[in-house]
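Need tokens for this chain, all 452 residues.
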Amino acid sequence: MIPRVIVAGVTSSVGKTSISIAIMRALREKGYTVQGFKVGPDYIDPSYHTSITGRQSRNLDPWLMGEKGVIQSFHDASIDADLAVIEGVMGLFDGLSGKDNFASTAHIAKLLKSHVILVIDAAKAARSVAAVALGFMKFDPSIRVAGVILNNVAGDKHARYCIDALKQIKIPVLGTIKRNKEIQLQERHLGLVPTGERKELNYKAVQVADYMKEQIDIDKTIAIAKKASKLHIKTNNINKKIKAITAIALDESFNFYYADNLDILRSLGAELKFFSPVNDRHIPDADGLYIGGGFPEVLAEKLEKNSDMLSAVRKVATDGMPIYAECGGLMYLTRSITEFNGAKHNMVNLFDVDTIMDKKLTLNYTEARVVNSCVIAKNGKTIRGHEFHYSRIDDSSKDIRFAYQLKKGKGVNGSNDGLIEYNTLASYMHMHFANRNYAENFLLACKAYSKH
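Here are the structure tokens for all 452 residues:
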């Protein structure tokens, strides 16, 4: 089984992504084929992994995928790699609740039998970093914390104080990253800016990785990765093939897709055709349409000006083409998007509601019961996902039909999600197709449409 290591933080915003891509960059320079992973529901951080490794990074999330789905995805993605680097989410033990480790980085470490490198922001501490590290080592002894990387170190003297303290608890220090405000990844309201949105961010990722990798002991990191225990995997055989053409909206506005989702569609027999709602005038000839999340509010003016595309999407929707849209895709299909500054832009107008950007973050795992059959699931099914956005839907229309009744999460109005119109489903909820029935149902709807 592939050598692997998890880069975990004591909290969010300690530099996990920067340190992860630095390790990936150093490994590639040593000739390793590196597979990146991100714990949790995140579309942005994996784009930095992909930029550095040249391989599509994957997500690992037990809530979305189930434990078997996590292990299977890890195996499938890393089978031809030399070493896997797995970036954690939030703090090491932060997951679905405070009761246990479910859906946390620690949960993934146990599932994948992987050792953990703990990242500590040392900016406002010295000897106390040892107390922090010791607490993480003892909180759950079954999680193997094998080393520490200190970020935001002021200088050599500060580093020496921290290292001397960590020696007392017998934990290896794999790196001390000197503070440098000029070497930082760019952020905005949903975290880092995706690399697919602006080409210069790929250069910035390399710059950050090159600065940090020189301050990390990569040989010790490799040695830790090689300690990972063997995993037992059952091969996932897919026999069903559903021939259908699916158009995928992919550009600087819409790029929140789990790579596994696209691969699963392909494995089921779909042909994927990509297009840009920002730059293209027409949708490719297809049997169905998948509009993922992203940042339509950032380029709302350009989306509005592309009236040919707005009309094209509305036309295929009213014609009954199966359309599945998530978050940013939902926003695009509403009547309008109002930016943070109050500027209002017309959108597809499939749903008689408006999207309004909101400074309040909605961030949840979600669970819903299907109350109206839709293109991905029949009435009565239970669906899990997640939501992550700074917008709200003005749902004043009395004619709204919802697919989902929420057991967990906020959705559109606090109790429902998944707007339905014609053969379109659009929700704030993002899903992972580890449960292949969702993808199968969508492709079956596409195939039926192709024959109408």
